[in-house]
């Protein structure tokens, strides 16, 4: 019998991976809020060079998890964007049964503990998407580049259910990397995200070329990245510090581009400040690690959010 | 015989104080660049509630200091905006005679040494304008609020010529405060400017209400201000640290407004990053004072300038 999967928060990311899972033969349903009618009528239209252009019509298209029919799903995939005030546990509670594995496909660091505490008896799979995918119209999703997923069980291990989930995605065309230490992988991604994302919002907005184009810019980026390394190490997840140089050089070599947070800012959408930067800042405070550059960026982001909240 | 005064860089500030000096009976000429033809034809039109609406027609309206006729002036007033690459000494050299006093009416800290070194035998008067005045059209200047000037000789003292200059301004309607320690007064003004100005450029742009509206914002402002106090103290100009709270509370009580740097940024004009913040940062590095918040702001400003330079 095919796996029953419920995707909660079917935005661009959820729709993209949901389409891949359905291609692999899974029984995929979605909970989506703002575009419910469009998706119910036509499903998702996915444009992707890698996966091909296709329509993804979920088995059940729901406005809330409590409407899910046929018993608890095998996997609940959480791909809601986490902004201040998002209560993910409440969003998924009605769909989580005793045997349901919860899969988080979300940005940020230290995003698992809240879910692990709310569902202590469920398997928790933490996944990071390395993908450039956007919603371009109601129900329409465009995949620009990448697509790989890194995943593992929280806090550490890779179970058979995780392998099965990865195998489905691979069958659906997604390259998966399984890891016994997904928390460290989150910190590795945070090393770039917690630095370039908030900086990119400054000066409304900066692309990676502006950021690394000023000599002071590169020094500041390196300082902030070393601070992320220090926090990660203090939480028991030391990073290879040569990553700092690799990330800087890699970013410099790529054509200038805008981060996801810069795009959110430009488009008036809420930014993932708290999971990408705020959680790193709180981890540093908890572990007594000095992070002056990250603290400055965090304070400036809260001022910018204050402005966008008032608009 | 009336004092001969040459104002170099007759933008809004220079025109405003020049008008006051002329009202007091001085023989006032100007060097202006971009609006030379308009000013030659019609003089400056000044709109001001405090000083009245008036036309200020300089005795000589020049494109360069070397065209000044009738011997060296008694005072050369420098009111050019100081941005990266501005060589003020070169701009004024041809008009400075042995007996000329040089008056700087400019923003920033540590802006005097360069001129003192270039003209070691001339009296140097350093002045800070507390005024809200803008150029609204070629040759047209609008005075919105304030207008007071603080001034004293550099590095310290108040000479007869300084008193005479202040007396002229007072006669022309400008309230002057003379100080034996103008460098400390510069640091006092920097305490607000070096913090609120760069922050205001972030998130393109923030007004004082956004900045102080977020709790993290006020904490960051206070931290950055304490850093300015530490730098000022290290340079031999300790500030009363209760100023930090006074400035924060005073700013909070005023209606939200945009700093001069935010307005420059919005209007695509060069920003005074280097004299307002860069000089404070360099002083801190020279004196080995840790200023992580100011360093972060400075790095971010250089990235923003990188962007504006590329536009």
From TrEMBL, chains A, B:
GO terms for cellular component: cytoplasm. This is 2-dehydropantoate 2-reductase. Residues 5-155 form the Ketopantoate reductase N-terminal domain. Belongs to the ketopantoate reductase family. Residues 182-305 form the Ketopantoate reductase C-terminal domain. It catalyses: (R)-pantoate + NADP(+) = 2-dehydropantoate + NADPH + H(+). Catalyzes the NADPH-dependent reduction of ketopantoate into pantoic acid.
């Amino acid at each position: 019998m095919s796996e029953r999967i419920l995707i909660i928060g079917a935005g661009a990311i959820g729709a993209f991976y949901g389409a891949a899972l359905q291609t692999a033969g899974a029984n995929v349903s979605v909970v989506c809020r703002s575009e419910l009618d469009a998706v119910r009528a036509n499903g998702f239209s996915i444009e992707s060079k890698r996966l091909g252009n296709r329509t993804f019509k979920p088995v059940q298209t729901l406005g809330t998890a409590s409407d899910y029919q046929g018993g608890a799903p095998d996997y609940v995939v959480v791909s809601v964007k986490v902004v201040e005030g998002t209560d993910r546990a409440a969003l998924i509670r009605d769909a989580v049964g005793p045997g349901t594995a919860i899969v988080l496909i979300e940005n940020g660091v230290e995003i698992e503990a809240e879910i692990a505490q709310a569902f202590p008896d469920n398997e928790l799979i933490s996944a990071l998407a390395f993908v450039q995918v956007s919603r371009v119209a109601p129900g329409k999703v465009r995949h620009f580049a990448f697509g790989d997923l890194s995943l593992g069980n929280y806090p550490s291990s890779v179970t058979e259910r995780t392998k099965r989930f990865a195998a489905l995605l691979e069958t659906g065309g997604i390259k998966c990397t399984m890891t016994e230490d997904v928390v460290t992988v989150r910190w590795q991604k945070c090393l770039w995200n917690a630095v370039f994302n908030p900086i990119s919002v400054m000066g409304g907005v900066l692309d990676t070329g502006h950021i690394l184009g000023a000599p002071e810019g590169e020094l500041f980026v390196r300082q902030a990245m070393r601070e992320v390394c220090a926090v990660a190490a203090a939480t028991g997840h030391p990073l290879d510090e040569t990553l700092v140089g690799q990330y800087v050089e890699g970013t410099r070599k790529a054509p200038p581009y805008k981060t996801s947070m810069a795009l959110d800012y430009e488009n008036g959408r809420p930014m993932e400040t708290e999971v990408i930067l705020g959680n790193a800042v709180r981890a540093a405070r908890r572990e007594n690690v000095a992070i002056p550059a990250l603290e400055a960026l965090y304070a400036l982001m809260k001022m910018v959010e204050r402005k966008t909240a008032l608009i």
